[in-house]
Amino acid sequence: MSGPQETVAGPADILRLLWGDAAVVSATRSPFPRAGRHEFLLLPRPSRATFLVPARPRLVTEAALRDYGTANTRRARLLSSIGAPLGRLGVLGLALPRATVAHRPGGGGLMAHAEALLGQELVPAIQLGPIRPNRKPVVQLRARDGRPVAYMKVGITDLTRDRVAHEAGALAELAARRNVLTFDVPRLLHAGEVGAVNYAITSVVDTGSDVTLSPEAVDAAMANLATAFEVASHEIRSAPWWSTLLDELADLKGAEAEALRAAAEVFRSREGDRPLTEGAAHGDWAPWNMATPRGSAVVWDWERFRCGVPVGWDALHFEIERNRRAGHGPLESITQVIPSCREVVGRNGAAAEDGLAILASYLLDLGVRQLRTRSEAARDSRGSLTTWLLPALHQILATNDPSTPL
Q1: For residues 11 and 47, what is the distance between their CA atoms, to the nearest angstrom?
Q2: Does pTM surpass 0.85?
Q3: For the chain, which residues make up each domain, given as ranges?
Q4: By CB distance 3.0 to 4.6 Å, which of 136, 152, 214, 405 could disulfide with 292?
Q5: How far are the Cα atoms of 260, 265, 285, 369 from residue 392, in angstroms, in the given order?
Q6: What CA–CA distance (Å, rounded) separates 7 from 240?
Q7: How far apart are CA 315 and CA 281, in angstroms?
C-alpha cells in the first residue's frame, strides 16, 4: 500500500499496512497455527470480512469478541455471544479459515510505530466496518493478556485521512474543555503520519451500558456539549454555517443538487430572518457512539464534530437514527420526528418554537453531506435523495400559506 487509495481497502491491504509493505499476507485453512506468524479470523465470513480477530493468544480472541458485542447491532451481539467463549477455548482458529501475516523484525509499518509510542508489545483486533469509500481500520490495541491498551484509527484515503485528522483535532479541543464537560470522551494519546497514511491513537473508555442507554444521561450530555464552546445567535441568512452550506451546495452537480438548492431557497425566503442559537455538535450523535455505564455518558467517534451550528441538530439526528435502527425506512424515520421535533430540540437546549426550522436546516445540511461524500452504502441503504430526504423536507416546507413561517 504505497499511497492513499481511493478504492476500498480489503483485509490483505490493511494487514500489509499494519506490518509494512514487505509483509507477506496469505490465507490458510490448516487447523494448526504456524509459529512466528500473526493469524486472523475473518468475520463474519472471509468474503465480507468486517472484523479481523487475532486467532491467538486466546485471551485476546475472547476479549476482542466480547467487546465487539457492545456494538448496538444484533449481528455483533450474536457474534460476540457465540464467538467469545469459543475463542477462549481456541476452537475458532481450528474451524475457520484465517489470514496469516509473515513479517521480518524491523520491517516497519504502523504496528511497530504504535508499539514504540505505547512502549509495549501489542496484539491488534481490526474493525473495518461496511464496504464503502470512507471505510478505514479501527484497531483495538491489546496486551497479550487481552487487556485493551488503546484504540487506533487509520486514514488510508483522502477522505478518511481528513476524518482521522479532524477527530484528532476535535479530541484536542474537547480536552481543553474537560473542566466544563459533564460526560467522558476518549483522550488523544498520539496522532501523526506514517508514510502515506495518518493515525490517531486514543485512550480506552468504558463502552458498556448496564442494560440500555439512559435517556437522562444522553440528553444531559447533549445539552452540555452544545454550550461547552462558544454560543451565539444569528439570523439564518447571516449565519456562518448557512453561508458555508450554500457555498458547498453551489459546487454540487446533478438533479438532486438542483432540488436541494430549490428547497434551500424556499427555506431562506421563509426563515431567513429567524435567529437560531448556535453551539457545538457531535455530528453523529447516535446510539452506537455512546454508552451510559453507571448512569453517566461516554461518547466517542468525533469525526464530524462542529462548532457554530444550530443547537438541536444532534437531538434530531439521534431520533432519526434510532428510528432507522428500529427498522423504519429512511423517509419514515424522518417523518416520524416531525410531530415531536419541538420537544426533541428542546432536549438539546434549543427553543421549542424553532423545532421545524431546525429540522429543515438539519435536512439541508444532511443532504449536502450526502452528496459531497456519497458512498456505496448510502446508495444501497437509502437511495436517491428524491426518495427520502427531499420528500421529508418538502413536507416540512409545505403549508397552505407559503409566507407563513415554520
Answers
A1: 10
A2: yes
A3: 11-202, 215-397
A4: 214
A5: 12, 16, 20, 16
A6: 34
A7: 9
- Decide: 51 and 85 in contact? Cβ < 8 Å: no
The three-point CA angle 134-140-96 to 5° equals 90
d(CA 238, CA 248): 16
Higher local confidence (pLDDT), 172 or 39? 172
Sign of the alpha-carbon torsion through 14, 15, 17, 21:
negative
Contacts by residues 192-197 (CB-CB < 8 Å, ≥ 24 positions apart): 194/108, 194/109, 194/110, 194/113, 195/2, 196/1, 196/2, 196/3, 196/4, 197/1, 197/4, 197/17, 197/110, 197/154, 197/155, 197/156, 197/161
Beta-strand ranges (E) seen in 166-274 are 188-194, 197-202, 232-235
Nearest-5° Cα angle at 156, 153 to 157: 130
Place of cell 496469516: 100
How buried is 60 (Cβ within 10 angstroms: 0-12 exposed, 13-18 middle, 19+ buried)?
buried
Give per-residue pLDDT as tens, 242-283: 999 999 999 999 999 999 999 999 999 999 999 999 999 999
Mean per-residue pLDDT for 133-162?
A: 92
CA distance 277 to 315: 14
The 3-state secondary structure of 172-200, one letter per residue: HHHHHCCCCCCCECCCEEEEEEECCEEEE
User: Which CATH fold topology does 215-397 show?
Assistant: Aminoglycoside 3'-phosphotransferase; Chain: A, domain 2 (3.90.1200)
